[in-house]
UniProtKB/TrEMBL annotation:
UniProt key word RNA-binding: no
Protein name: Pyridoxal-dependent decarboxylase
Lineage, uppermost ranks: Bacteria, Bacillati, Actinomycetota, Actinomycetes, Kitasatosporales
Cofactor(s) this protein requires: pyridoxal 5'-phosphate
InterPro entries, alphabetized: Aromatic_deC, PyrdxlP-dep_de-COase, PyrdxlP-dep_Trfase, PyrdxlP-dep_Trfase_major, PyrdxlP-dep_Trfase_small
Family: Belongs to the group II decarboxylase family.
Parts forming coiled coils: none
Region (Disordered): 1-23
Source species: Streptomyces kronopolitis
Record keywords, A-Z: Decarboxylase, Lyase, Pyridoxal phosphate
Length: 510
C-alpha cells in the first residue's frame, strides 16, 4: 500500500466529522445545506416520479466508488441528486396515489432532526432519560384514546408488521400459559404440545404480516384461519362464530382473533363489537390491527372504531394516518402484565434489580434493543399542531375518497369494488367490447405499468377474486378531485392505446 493512501486516512479528518462541541457549527452548516436543497427539491417536484427503470438507474449507483470519498458534503449531495433524489418517488406529490404512504407534517421532521442528532436509544433509562418518559406519555395517550383502561401499556415499534408480530407473540404465550395451567392437558405437557393446536382467526382481507408472524412464532402451516368477508370486505361474524365452534369441537385453541380496522386494500373495518363478544365467549385474545385506521382515533369519525376498546392488543401505524415519517408505530396492550413475555434481563443492560428500583427500561417491553426515539416526532406534532388538526387531515382524505367513489361509479369506463369507509378505492378499467376476461387483467396491468413508467402518477394494483384491479390510496389532502379525474383519464388513455395496439383477433382464432 502506498504512503499516500495511508496519509489520506488521517484520523484528524474523521474527527472533524464527528458531532461534538467543537463541530457544532460545521453540523449546522452541513445540515442546513442539505435541508435547503431538499426544500428546493420538494418545491420543484412536478411529478411523483421520473419513471426511471432499474436498468437505467443501476449503473449510476454501481458506478460510485465507495472507497474513494469525496471529502466534501456539497459534492456528495450533488452526487446524491444523480443516484437518488432526481428519481426518487415523492409521496408528497398530489398524484402519488399508490400505497399507504402519507405526506409528512413538518413538526415531525423537526423531531426527526432532533432525535437523529441527540441519538437517544430508548432501550434503557440510562440511554434516554426524558425520551423514555415522553414515549410512555404517548403510549398512555394513545391507549386512553382507544379506551384500553387503567392497566394498559405498550411500546413504539418499527412498523405495523412488528407490532402485529409482538401482539401475536403475547397472544401465543398467554394461550400456552392458559393451556398448560388449565388442567385440560396431561401432566407434564409442554408448550411444544400446545403450539400445533393454536389457531389465529383473521379475515381473508387482513394483512399478510399476520401469516408471517404465525410462521415466525413456530405455529403450523394451517395456524391462520381465513374467515370470509362480506361484500363490504368486512369479516363475516357468522363465519367467525362457526370457525370458533369448530375449533372447540376439534380440540383446537383459538389463540387470537385478529380484526382489521382499515384493511390495506379496501379500508374496510371489521365489526369490532361483535368480534369482541365472540372473543369474550371463547376466551380468545382480541387483536385489532388498526395500522391504517388508527387516524380515526383523532378524527370526527371516531365512532367507526367503536368496539376497539375491548381489544387485548392494538396495532397503530402513526406513519400511515398520523402523517408521520417512517418509521413510527406502536403496539398497545390492555394488560401491561402480558408484556412480561418479552422481558429478558441482561446484567450489562437492564438487570432484574432495576425493576424493583422502578427504573423504566423500555427494552423490558420491546422486541428490539437499541431503538430510535420515534416518539419524539409524534410528541412535537401534538405539541405544535394538535390532535384535532391531524384528524381533520385524515377526514379530508376520507371525504375525498367518497367523492372519488361517486366519480368512478358514474364513469362507464371503470368498475369500482366497494364504497370506501376510509380512503382507498379499488377499481378497474373495463374494455367495452371484448368478452375475454383475461383481456381485462392485461389492460389494467398494462395501464398501471405504463403510468408508472411515465412518472405522471403512481397507482397501486391488487387482485379481487383472482382478477387484476387498480387501487388508489388517498392520504394526501393536497390531492384534489381534479387530480383524481386527471389520473383516471391517463389510465383510460394507456388502456386505450394498449387495446388499439393489440392484433385484431381473427375469426378462426375465436
Ligand atoms: C401497512 C399495514 C401493516 C404493516 O405495517 P408496516 O408499518 O408496513 O409494517 C399491517 N396491517 C395493516 C392493516 C396495514 O395496512
Amino acid at each position: 500500500m502506498s504512503l499516500l493512501a495511508h496519509s489520506a486516512e488521517d484520523p484528524a479528518d474523521g474527527r472533524t466529522h464527528l458531532l461534538h462541541n467543537g463541530t457544532a457549527q460545521h453540523y449546522r452548516r452541513t445540515v442546513t445545506e442539505a435541508v435547503t436543497r431538499i426544500s428546493a427539491k420538494i418545491a420543484g417536484t412536478t411529478r411523483p416520479f421520473t419513471g426511471v427503470t432499474v436498468d437505467g438507474l443501476t449503473p449510476t449507483v454501481s458506478g460510485v466508488d465507495l472507497d474513494a470519498p469525496l471529502h466534501d458534503a456539497a459534492a456528495a449531495l450533488d452526487e446524491l441528486e444523480d443516484v437518488y433524489l432526481r428519481d426518487a418517488v415523492y409521496f408528497h406529490h398530489p398524484r402519488y396515489l399508490a400505497h399507504l404512504n402519507c405526506p409528512v407534517v413538518i413538526p415531525a421532521l423537526v423531531g426527526e432532526a432532533v432525535l437523529a442528532a441527540v441519538n437517544s436509544s430508548l432501550d434503557t433509562w440510562d440511554q434516554s432519560a426524558g425520551g423514555t418518559l415522553i414515549e410512555r406519555r404517548l403510549i398512555d395517550w394513545t391507549a386512553a384514546r382507544i379506551g384500553l383502561g387503567e392497566r394498559a401499556d405498550g411500546i413504539f415499534t418499527s412498523g405495523g408488521s412488528q407490532s402485529n408480530l409482538q401482539a401475536m407473540l403475547l397472544a401465543r404465550d398467554e394461550a400456552c400459559r392458559r393451556a398448560l395451567t388449565g388442567g385440560e392437558l396431561p401432566d407434564g405437557a409442554r408448550p411444544s404440545d400446545v403450539l400445533p393446536r393454536l389457531r389465529i382467526l383473521t379475515s381473508a382481507c387482513s394483512h399478510f404480516s399476520i401469516h408471517k408472524a404465525a410462521t415466525l412464532l413456530g405455529l403450523g402451516a394451517d395456524a391462520v384461519i381465513a374467515v370470509p368477508c362480506d361484500e363490504q370486505k368486512r369479516m363475516r361474524t357468522t363465519d367467525l362464530a362457526a370457525e370458533l365452534a369448530r375449533c372447540r369441537r376439534e380440540g383446537l385453541i383459538p389463540m387470537a382473533v385478529v380484526a382489521t380496522a382499515g384493511t390495506t386494500d379496501f379500508g374496510s373495518i371489521d365489526p369490532l363489537p361483535e368480534i369482541a363478544g365472540l372473543c369474550a365467549g371463547y376466551g380468545a385474545w382480541m387483536h385489532v390491527d388498526a395500522a391504517y385506521g388508527c387516524g380515526l382515533l383523532v378524527s370526527r369519525r371516531r365512532e367507526l372504531l367503536n368496539g376497539i376498546e375491548h381489544a387485548d392488543s392494538v396495532t397503530v401505524d402513526y406513519h400511515k394516518s398520523f402523517f408521520q415519517p417512517v418509521s413510527s408505530s406502536a403496539v398497545l396492550v390492555r394488560d401491561r402484565a402480558t408484556l412480561r413475555h418479552v422481558t429478558y434481563h441482561a446484567d450489562y443492560l437492564n438487570p432484574r434489580r432495576m425493576v424493583e428500583q422502578r427504573i423504566p427500561n423500555q427494552v423490558d417491553k420491546s422486541l428490539q434493543t437499541t431503538r430510535r426515539f420515534d416518539a419524539l416526532k409524534l410528541w412535537l406534532t401534538l405539541r405544535i399542531i394538535g390532535a384535532p388538526a391531524l384528524g381533520a387531515l385524515f377526514d379530508e382524505v376520507i371525504d375525498r375518497a367518497a367523492d372519488a367513489w361517486k366519480l368512478l361509479a358514474d364513469d362507464p369506463r371503470f368498475e369500482v369494488v366497494v364504497e370506501p369507509r376510509l380512503s382507498t378505492l379499488v377499481f378497474r378499467y373495463v374494455p367495452s367490447t371484448d368478452q375475454d376476461p383475461d383481456l381485462g387483467d392485461r389492460v389494467n396491468l398494462h395501464a398501471r405499468e405504463a403510468l408508472f413508467a411515465s412518472g405522471d402518477a403512481i397507482v397501486a394494483g391488487t387482485t379481487v377474486d383472482g382478477r387484476h384491479y387498480l387501487k388508489f390510496t388517498l392520504l394526501n389532502p393536497e390531492t384534489t378531485l381534479e387530480d383524481i379525474a386527471t389520473v383516471l383519464d391517463l389510465i383510460a388513455e394507456h388502456a386505450g392505446s394498449f387495446l388499439a395496439a393489440r392484433p385484431r383477433p381473427t375469426l378462426s382464432a375465436r
